[in-house]
Amino acid sequence: MMYKQCAFWKPGLLAALGAVTVFLALTCEQPSTMVYRKVATMLLLSGLSQSTIAKCRCIPKQPCWPSVTEWEAFNRTIHGKLFVNIPVAIPCYEGPLQNAAECASVTKQYANNSFQQTFPIGYSYPLQPDCPLIPFGAEADSKCGLGDAPIYTVNATEIEHIQSAVIWARSANIRLVIRDTGHDLLGRSMGYGSLQVWIKYLRNGIEYHAQFDQGSHQKSTTSWKGLAFTIRGGYTWSDIYFKAARRDLFVVGGGTPSVGYIGGWMQGGGHGPATHDFGLGADNVLSAKVVLADGTLVTASPVENKDLFFAIRGGGPGTYGIVVETTVKAYPTQKVLAQTLAIASQSGNITSFLEAVADLYQAFPELAEAGWSGYGSALPMARLASTNNLIRHLV
User: Could you say which protein family the record assigns here (predicted)?
Assistant: First the structure.
């Protein structure tokens, strides 16, 4: 059965449709009674007229797919920032890109988040199932492909590169996906047959504001007046924490230093170690700059594009636009007490072990009331040392 990428859009439908829009944006099956019945039902439930139609995105191997000449012309407009994506593990497979030394390097670092992030389609999770890591020279018939990963990537180092990519994808009717650091359990920064905008190397500085008066900046009478940082680009928490710590300050951030701020973390809500006392990352955003679906750059704040400002703070990443800059609250550094509790199954009795874990979970509300917050996970004891190192780094 053939499938196409499909977009379903009509001005003003976003708020009305919600998840329905997302569902219809995933795939567009070739004409079948079943699909039309589903679409008709959704249109009826949402109160839309039957004149609204589905518009399928163009995918590779279709006549509408841009030619190599067209891609090259687009590449010239963004000063050579476009490249074809190649799976991380491809040096280990038979073919023109097979390389023993590179395969050894990939094998050694494959599970390392920082290593994966250096590739436009390197993912912390899920690792690419269509090109898994294999021993060099193993299984001559092994196949390595892109799977659901994007075909092309724009390595955006300027906002203009992002705007050009958005306009190009729209004019060529191809799917567009956005990626910062690629941390996503559900792989939502992937996109079959798509053009990817990669903002990891969009780095125009982190500016400190000793007194950010949002009232004077944004003509608002109920806004923040105090410490702040403006994050211009795809900086990670390791970058931002370092900048803040040099001034004896901190910002509400994530628990993993390799995660970026302006991408899926903030736009998905943004939980972190300081959330218990200072709110989610989304609660700490004072303003943002966003590239919209037509390529225009706008400011979102409590008084400018207020609906967009509301949406990007927890409404889901890559849904309403591409966030390229945010200004966030900062706070004076505070003393904290860190505690690591490790529970191990000494006898191999998994039932007793799970009962102990359940007892701990039941105590969480009381611990939270007492001011404790943090993270818990199940992991092999061999990794406990690295976890302790992470805690020391964050504290």
Answer: Belongs to the oxygen-dependent FAD-linked oxidoreductase family.
For the chain, where are the alpha helices, taking DSSP H only? Answer: 14-17, 19-24, 33-46, 68-77, 100-109, 113-116, 159-172, 214-218, 237-245, 264-267, 275-278, 306-312, 350-362, 364-369, 384-394
Backbone angles phi, psi at 389, to 5 degrees: -65, -40
Helix (H) or strand (E) holding 197: strand 195-198
Residue 321 DSSP class: -
pLDDT for 88? 94
CATH architecture designation of domain 203-332: 2-Layer Sandwich (3.30)
Chain centroid to CA 386: 24
What is the spatial distance between Cα 135 and Cα 93, in angstroms, rounded to a whole number?
9
SS3 of residue 154 by DSSP? strand
Task: Tell me the per-residue pLDDT of 266-282, one tens digit each, with 9 for 90 and over.
Answer: 999 999 889 999 999 99
Closest C-alpha among 158, 160, 200, 193 to residue 178: 200
Higher pLDDT, 186 or 4: 186
What are the domain boundaries of the chain?
A: 3-57, 68-198, 203-332, 350-394
Shared fold status for 68-198 and 203-332 = no
Burial code of 121-134, b = ≥16 C-beta within 10 A, e = fewer? bbbbeeebeebeee
Domain 68-198 of CATH type 1.10.150.20: no
Q: Which of 149, 184, 176 is nearest to 267 (CA)?
A: 184
Q: DSSP strand E in 242-314: where? A: 249-250, 285-291, 297-300
